[in-house]
Amino acid sequence: MASSTTLFPFLSIVALALLATAYAHHGFSVELIHHDHPRSPSYNPTLSPSDRIQAEIQRSNARAASLRAYFSYFHEYHDGYPSTYPPPSGSQSPCHPPNSPHGTTIQADLFASTDNNYYMSIRLGTPVKEIIAVPDTGSYLIWVGCEPCPKCYKKDPLFNPATSSSYTNLPCDSKPCSQLTPQRFCVNSTCTYYESYGQGIPYVIGDLAQETFTFKTTSGSFVRLPGLVFGCTHITNGTSQRNTAGIVGLGGHPLSLVSQLGSSIEHRFSYCLVPSSLTKVMTSHLNFGSDAVVSGAQTISMIDNGRQSFYAVTLDGITVGNNSLGPINSTMMIVDCGSTLTSLHGTVLERLVDALKKTISLPQVEDGQLPLCFNESTRSDYGYPDIILQLGTATITLKPYNAFLMINNHVRCLAMKPNDNFSILGNIAQQNFHIGFDLASWKISFAAADCTKN
């Protein structure tokens, strides 16, 4: 294991920029593996299609709850955090869990459930170790489970930093460590992080470090990136790592993968999600640099939330077919690849449901979880309308497969739920859209696309 020095992080960042520049002009893309794809660590071949849908709904409910908890804490505490924090720098061990006598629980930017809908393969270290991690637009830190970690997810062996010649811990006075503030403390001169996933229940603790990451592109080539800053997790209560060995943060914070690659990828990334009906047989794409340019797109500014973790726009109106719902109060809508379902303010969702009932001539049935369901067994001409979202100056047309979810052979339901805190554009609504994020201009682009060919 390499020794930690203040100079090493600077040299590694320079090397990263020089190496990344070589491919930035061409860009690169990696696979996004759906939760129900046979290559997913969460894949369960015994589940029926109906079981899979119910599990997706439950994951989406958990994700929405995590987001609500985050915003609750964000508004309760100055700058999103309590004024006190567990171990003060240089004085405590990382072994004190949340709610211990050594401090109070915090809500960190990394708020998502790691039992997510998409995974990606990363390779780290020298020699390389492959890890299946969750890419998350709602998180800022890259982290993986590392040896030793008794409660980390262990479907495959954990990454062992002691066996990698390119691994180095970062010191407490390094710039990346200061960017963790306030969720950091110092142990034996090593920068140590603490990440909570909502009211302190799931959490991870580990060393902030630098390592060489390698990505296998969709073309079969490899992109090698030395000196990426990441978290090497050694302590967890287990619930934060149900089905993944780590997270790849894609948020706007300086420590996210996108921000670390920075100008080498022109500060932009995109993804294109294949329809739900194909996720068991096809993978989606996550794109960087020139591969992330979205052709024929509508581009709008995102809400400036301090450019930390999540990406959001304003929802200003909804049209069903050719009929507008009329004026609605503009609300923040988070564009979230980790949520299956779209969420709308309760009163807006009620108006949308009423409009759909008047438009769709099918028998209605109760589902118990989703607000509007139809029995398709008696008709072949279903008549589901397009739903158009007014996002600032952009209009996004949701086709029936973006707005409705087949629950079983004959029942199809509106893939939306109420949420009075904020709205969420879920990943069903995002399927067959090429969605691009430009962190330099803080803009988002939408273009309808055939993601099976992207």
TrEMBL record:
Keywords in alphabetical order: Aspartyl protease, Glycoprotein, Hydrolase, Protease, Signal
Glycoprotein recorded as keyword: yes
Leader sequence residues: 1-24
Family recorded in the similarity comment: Belongs to the peptidase A1 family.
Protein name: Peptidase A1 domain-containing protein
Active site: 136, 336
GO cellular component: a single term: extracellular region
GO BP, sorted A to Z: proteolysis
Gene Ontology molecular-function annotations: aspartic-type endopeptidase activity
Pfam annotation, one family: TAXi_C
